[in-house]
Amino acid sequence: MNILACFGSGQSRPSTTPSSTRARRSTFDPSKGARVVRPGPLPAAPPAAAAPPRAALAQKRPSVLSSRPNSAPSPSPSSSTPARSQAQAQVPAQSGSQRREDNSQAQRSQYNKDNMRRPSAVGSGSYGQANDPFACTHLTELMPITPIESTYRAHSGGTLPDGIEAPESREQNMRRLYVHDEDRVLLKVVHYGNPTSVGIEFEEGGDWQFKPLWTQRAGPRAQIYFHPSAVKAAIVTCGGLCPGLNDVIRQVVFTLDVYGVKEILGIQYGFKGFVDPKYPPVALTRKLVSRVHMAGGSFLGVSRGTPDLNDIVDKLQDWGINFFFIIGGNGSHAGAHEIYKRCLERKMKIAVVGIPKTIDNDLQLVDKTFGFDTSVEEAQRAINAAFVEASSAYNGVGIVKLMGRQSGFIAMYATLASGQVDIVLIPEVPFVLEGEHGVYNFMKKRLDKNGLCVVVIAEGAGQELLESSGGVDASGNPILGDIGKWFYSQVKAYFGKIKMSVDVKYIDPTYMIRARHCNSSDHIICSVLGQNAVHGAFAGYTDITIGLVNTHYVFLPIPKVIEVARKVDPNSNMWHRTVTSTGQPDFPMVPQKISEKKAQSQPSSPPKSQPTSPKSPVSGSSRSQSPGDPYLAGAIHLI
Ligand SMILES: Nc1ncnc2c1ncn2[C@@H]1O[C@H](COP(=O)(O)OP(=O)(O)O)[C@@H](O)[C@H]1O
Ligand SMILES: O=P(O)(O)OC[C@H]1O[C@](O)(COP(=O)(O)O)[C@@H](O)[C@@H]1O
């Protein structure tokens, strides 16, 4: 691939990795870790040698407050002086820059004291607990490192020259630039009032009590664990395309540049770029990436397929990489986690940071992934075209197939957004086509009533109806049968059989929705994710990814987000809203009358501590996922 294809001809070609760096194999040397450039001004870190091993911390994490070496010291109980006067009181005759630093420290301490909320103030739950599932791995748990004062200066773009005293207001601003390591974001914000509440999730054992789960707030820290001049970063984009990839790369590069990092490598064509000598890494600069966000795709290239991860780790070591940013989905994050573990075995001081990319939005825990909004927006164009065609034709039927191999988020959101869809079919909600309660019959009803019918079908829907190849792609993802084309031919056959004249149009915008550049909302998400990935690495975290949780950006441990791919919950409010909007009924696989159902099993009150299946006679879409009662709600609806 011509790496500059998307920039036009006026730019110079990026240089490839210098051979000298390729030849050098770096080994971890604690003494050459982070260099302290300005001793003193920040709260002292605990002695490096005292850093407990990771395993011990995982077992015994008494409090996040004390487990992080860069936690600010607890403020003295007697100190109640306002930040400014306290800071002034502590400053003897000093140089301007020294005084500025001490002021800054005192103000930060006071600020922390004033603003610190202990677990008791925010409720119990995961915060600071020994088994906190969202505690992120910090490099100091793995090896001794001494932090330094952050070089990130978002306000000024650089430090003031020595001898020039900053105005007080600037110091105050700086104090507010950093996120404290103890800041947390609540993961689940709904406190369910009853076990039948829609969307409720049950813990093991059927516990539905509200348990606060806290995630770690992302953002720049006052102390960093790598000196920018010692950082060599690598960025890779893996998996399928997604709008916004270039935006994320751009912001990672910009933010590294603001910290002062000079060496940034772009790995070409995903993980393959580590092992294919035809595509060596390219040197990335602020100038080179400044306009890449205007184009879709990834200017570095993407790929699927799994090269030997040891080869990748060899290359990271050979090239001296100590920041590794992986922009990818579930598969890439699984790879990132494996790479982190292998780096750990080799005692490499490296921050492995993921940035979730999945157009399917199928990543656990986060509000949404970047590019998803854009794909939903682009899908509107296809749905609208289907609607226009259908509404202008005699008995017009428009069918749109949308991406979503194993989850129907794009189809669901695009349907809700468009307001032009009669039926949406997704992988998570099985359906029957034939019969009184099947899809075809409902299509006929809509045609009889409105003269048109628009159907959105996710590519992973109804796979059980098709002959699948059973194969997998290079990354191990299942290769699906083409449900869109198949459904199109079946619809034509059905209406032919019942001798009803229909005009069926089929639109498959699959690659159009992910090949475009992103919309404004995604530009913003990409920017903040990219920036926070760099903040996370400098803050010393590893094996983390960045997510948007309840509108806040957080660091999440990679293992938590890849436990299982996210799917549309048919018991969720959002699915109910969607079918309320389309007006479609359930298309149950095994339609049964409620009387038959009752005869089969005498329902008793649910066993203690077991979820009660929520039933919604209105939408009929609230399907219990418990095996004994699969479609009771659908049966109620049909009566
Ligand atoms: N379980 C896994 N362990 C290690 N690496 C994986 C795993 N699954 C996928 N990968 C790697 O991640 C890359 C992207 O995975 P893929 O499934 O294609 O996309 P995505 O990351 O979007 O899910 C692949 O090139 C492959 O090398
Ligand atoms: O044809 P390709 O490039 O394998 O991509 C198609 C697949 O990628 C997806 O978009 C998911 O990929 P990502 O999770 O990597 O974004 C699926 O919806 C779709 O089946």
From TrEMBL:
Compositional bias (Polar residues) at which positions?
A: 104-113, 575-584
What's one GO-annotated cellular component? cytoplasm
Stated role: Catalyzes the phosphorylation of D-fructose 6-phosphate to fructose 1,6-bisphosphate by ATP, the first committing step of glycolysis.
Q: Which SUPFAM superfamilies match?
A: Phosphofructokinase (SSF53784)
Region feature (Disordered): 1-128, 575-634
Which UniProt keywords are present, listed alphabetically? Allosteric enzyme, ATP-binding, Glycolysis, Kinase, Magnesium, Metal-binding, Nucleotide-binding, Transferase
Recorded GO MF terms: 6-phosphofructokinase activity; ATP binding; metal ion binding
List where Low complexity composition bias occurs: 12-21, 66-90, 610-627
User: Which residue windows does the record flag with biased composition (Pro residues)?
Assistant: 40-50
| Matches recorded under InterPro entries | ATP_PFK (IPR022953), PFKA (IPR050929), Phosphofructokinase_dom (IPR000023), PKF_sf (IPR035966)
Q: What is this protein called?
A: Phosphofructokinase domain-containing protein
Q: Which Pfam families match?
A: PFK (PF00365)
Set out the biological process GO terms recorded for this chain's protein: fructose 6-phosphate metabolic process
Concerning NCBIfam families, the annotation shows: PRK06830.1
